[in-house]
Specification:
This protein is an alpha/beta fold and about 250 residues long. The protein is built from ten helices and 15 strands. It is globular. The protein starts with a helix and ends in a 6-residue tail after the last strand.
Length: about 250
């Protein structure tokens, strides 16, 4: 795998990560990154590199927010019904999770999040207490990332984590951004119950980075188009599956 191939998928990677993946020394990666930067294809950052030109907007929050919106709204309503008043709820930065957040204010929850859109949503909500993780702002994803964010969730304790991902297969849950993996794993470890909200496009999809085994899931909330065969496999594992109803007719 070339440096550019990896950065097109991950968007950002440290020099050490690129060294491990390419099987070359960090100094070699540093020289290659410098050469690629001079060609205008990537931008060097402190200790790593970021993909710049021609990159897909697939991961941008504004783009994700507008995709499969009907399915996401149905999933959000179904998921919100699972949340008890006064619970402490971890919310990640997924666009479907944002839709869930829109239905939670009446339950007077305590929210812990690394999502800037979720934090903004509750900024004037009188019934919700919001704790925002520390970290570095990643504008395109609308998320706080880095060691401070991971540490915030590792020290938290929540009744439930409501989460998203890029893919679910029989192997487990996957995500497209390496920056989110450690943080989401800390969310899982800090929660009594773990709910993944995944629309049908995420099933049988293996993304770049492995997040967690299916055994760490308590519940999956999805839409009416999700494949029944995989949902039945989840049920056989003892995972609660909720399929949101489709539109009338």
């Amino acid at each position: 795998m070339r440096i550019t191939d990896h950065l097109k998928e991950a968007e950002f990677a440290s020099l050490e990560e690129l060294s491990d993946r390419l099987g070359v020394s960090v100094s070699t990666v540093r020289r290659d990154v410098t050469a690629l930067e001079s060609g205008g294809r990537i931008r060097r950052t402190h200790g790593g590199a970021r993909w710049q030109p021609g990159r897909s907007d697939e991961f941008a929050f504004t783009v994700r927010h507008s995709q499969s919106i009907r399915e996401k709204e149905a999933i959000a309503r179904a998921c919100a019904e699972l949340i008890q008043p006064g619970w402490t709820v971890i919310l990640d930065a997924g666009s479907t999770v944002y839709q869930v957040a829109r239905h939670l204010e009446s339950k007077a929850p305590q929210i812990i999040t690394n999502s800037l859109p979720v934090a903004n949503l509750f900024s004037s909500a009188p019934n919700a207490e919001v704790v925002v993780s520390g970290g570095v702002i990643y504008p395109r994803l609308g998320v706080l990332v880095g060691p401070l964010a991971v540490q915030a969730f590792a020290r938290a304790h929540a009744d439930v984590a409501i989460m998203s991902a890029s893919g679910l297969t029989a192997e487990g849950i996957f995500n497209s951004h390496s920056l989110l993996i450690d943080m989401q794993q800390a969310m899982i470890q800090s929660s009594e119950k773990v709910i993944f909200c995944l629309d049908h496009t995420k099933f049988d999809r293996r993304s770049l980075f492995f997040l967690t085994d299916l055994g760490n899931l308590d519940c999956v909330v999805t839409d009416w188009l999700a494949p029944e065969s995989l949902l039945e496999d989840l049920r056989c594992m003892g995972i609660e599956v909720i399929r949101a109803p489709g539109p009338p007719g």
